[in-house]
Design brief:
This protein is mainly α. It has 4 helices and no strands.
Length: 119
Amino acid sequence: MKTIRNLFLEELAARLHSEKQLVAAIPSMIEASTSTRLRNILQGHFLETQDHIDLLEKLFKELDEKPRASKCYGTVGLLRDCEDRIATFKGTAAINAAIIAAAQKIEHYEVASYGCLQE
């Protein structure tokens, strides 16, 4: 029988996958950026994302569950879009705007996802 706990754990697993995918993707965003300020912001977000992974793993353990990641298709799609934008606009004046737009979409999805876990 599926319960609210099952749903909560599935959402946690999706968040863990999402955060791990972000840790893998942010360095390419930093590398593609031509703005020192944007690179610094992305570096800060990279460190926050690593902290999120640690917190999620700790939460799994507090719930007497083994930390596990379950594919988050939303994040996969958003990161694929980000990669496409970087490939399309790399070396152009629009690269920083393209990275910001992609990062904002990812961040909004992340905020919505964590908000669902709170309720």
